[in-house]
Amino acid sequence: MARTFHSVCKLCRREGTQLYLKGARCFTVKCAVKKREYPPGAHVWRRQKISDFGMKLRETQKVKRIYGLNHRQFRRIYAEASRMKGNTGENLIQLLERRLMNVVALLGFAGSRPAARQMIGHGHVRVNGRRMDVASYQVRVGDTITLHTRERSQKLAKQSLDVGLQARVPPWLTRTEDPPSGKVIAHPTREDITIPINENLVVEFCSR
Fold it and tell me: Rounded to an integer, what distance in angstroms lies between the CA atom of residue 127 and that of residue 130?
């Protein structure tokens, strides 16, 4: 599902914070939040207050945009989170964070989640030494994520690491840069996730 820079950057402006959906662009002066620190639209100051339903809907749409999900994928993950023990909202965020495309982006091997999805689809990524071309694969504790040994795969990861788009690797992952590899050492906790998401609003919207 292709999206233009303009439509994606509007989401960051609407939320008033950087969501880092466009990789290197978010670290330059071209970032929409840096250029215009107010929501999009010609009549922004005339807008009415958003209803409770509208807030829940917007939060759900934001989660889908950040993690690159369509409606069917999101409902499937939510259903799985609701069956798990514990807080449904935290289970949902944990499942989303453990998707392979998200892990590849967090490790810094790709500049954004869409770029990570493309890398996985083109066969550049290995999980425990075996080719994995399913971007939605749920990583587990102990899984090792590496790149194909061919020059093209190694170059893609090193270019992203050199730019430093993902300098901070979350505590539940470890990374080595030469050669590029990463390992899952724990399941992510809510404190490990810095993306501005209110998962309680998402759960209220989905369980209505």
Answer: 5
Structural domains in the chain, CATH included, are 5-40+49-96+195-206 (1.10.1050.10), 100-184 (3.10.290.10)
Provide the strand spans (E) within the chain. Answer: 125-127, 130-131, 144-147, 173-177, 180-184
Q: How far apart, in whole angstroms, are the C-alpha atoms of residue 172 and residue 151? A: 28
The predicted model scores a pTM of 0.77
Is there a contact between 87 and 122 (Cβ–Cβ < 8 Å)? no
- Give residue-wise pLDDT tens across range 110-146: 888 998 999 999 999 999 999 999 999 999 999 999 9
Q: Which two tokens stand for residue 185?
A: 């050492």
Six-digit token string for 38: 């107010």
- CA distances 116 to 51, 101, 112, 137, 193, Å, are 35, 5, 6, 13, 18
The C-alpha atoms of residue 110 and residue 125 are separated, in whole angstroms, by: 11
What is the total residue count of the chain?
Answer: 208
